[in-house]
């Protein structure tokens, strides 16, 4: 079961059904969704994705997925999950544009990485980031992630594979 995590300014907790509208709004914002998965999707697809968090991810305890809140308001989405692209666990995070530029992304990525090393006992935590997503690449570089390789996608774009190794 996905645990609740707290940072200085953020609360990460399992989604509840009442989060659907906020989730859909986050993923329908193309400034956010352009960097997520296969990019922007229809509203119906995002609603179906939200439903699968309950019917599949939580029901089968597949991996951890969180609603990210600041001052009680849903401001983002976070995950840590096994992935074939890296051969390990990767962190996934998104924040609403209103939460950009405040250091919350760094706080969120640090919390996910610490959870991976601590609670999950991982020796490596990965991230996959579109090569054009300079903000996320800079954020992850700043907290110790290193570029290990590139994946050339079918659409001609490049995804960077990053890793942070546990020290000590």
Summarize the structure.
The protein is α+β, with helices and mostly antiparallel strands and 168 residues long. Helices cover 31% and strands 32% of the residues. It has helices at residues 20-28, 30-33, 43-58, 104-117, 134-142; strands at 5-6, 11-13, 64-70, 73-83, 88-95, 124-130, 146-152, 158-165.
Would you give an account of this structure?
By secondary structure, the chain is of the alpha+beta class. Helix content is 31%, strand content 32%. The protein contains five helices and eight strands; from the N terminus they run E-E-H-H-H-E-E-E-H-E-H-E-E. Strands 1-2-3-4-5 form a five-stranded antiparallel beta sheet, with helices on both faces. The longest helix has 16 residues, at 43-58. It is globular and about 40 Å long. The two termini are 28 Å apart. The model has no long low-confidence stretch (mean pLDDT 95).
